[in-house]
Amino acid sequence: VDQPSLQVQWRESDKLGYLGINSAVPGLSDPQVRQAIAHAINLPGLIANHYPFGSQPADQFLPSAIWGRDPELDGYSYDPDLSVSLMSQAGYTDVYTTTLAYRNVVRAYLPDPPAVAEDIRASLLQVGIDATIIEYESAEFLDAWVNGELELFLLGWGADYLHPDNFFSPILCDPNNLGFGPLDLTLCTLVQNARSDPDTLDQLALYQDASQRVYDNVPLVPLAHPRSALVRVRRADAAPIA
Fold first, then answer.
1. Which pTM value belongs to this model?
2. How many other CB atoms are found less than 10 A from the CB of residue 242?
3. Cβ distance 116 to 102 under 8 Å?
4. 234, 5 in Cβ contact below 8 A?
């Protein structure tokens, strides 16, 4: 129903849902395979079909409410032909088999885990990647993830506070977490340098470099930035909300 007196004001997202990739696994250790996975997923379709209205396809690791994003990044293009080419260049001209895990809980960054997993599986299958889906009980999933026992996995994060270190450090630079495989020392050095630099502009540049590094190295494929909204009643004589 059209309600001109009601205006929706979207909050910036502080959450990320992602497809994680364990680079310790043969095959997934190849950056071209990880890039092929990223280009195989139709993010707009995935978000439209399985996320609440207002959710945004993720264009990079950090959501829009967190400073340190790289303004030059525009997400991975949906390009199945490029995915097939990248798999071929990596030496996989036949079907590459892997597993795709999710835990049996609903989160804002993953509102329908089975459906999202099935959608991603179908996309990957079109480019020669056959991912067997495995559902885990939540605690079992997290234990397997931290111990590096998962291959592809669906997970996410919501900010404890609005700072880029609250995303980079606990997700990708925790030495006790083997979920993504060996730490990317180049990335984590950027993050450490940013954390210790007293100059805000230097920090910004370092975190933007870290954002670019995540994009290039593909330890994960950003999927969704969920948003919430305020609905306001506007008086007839009031100016529109910007």
1. 0.90
2. 4
3. yes
4. yes
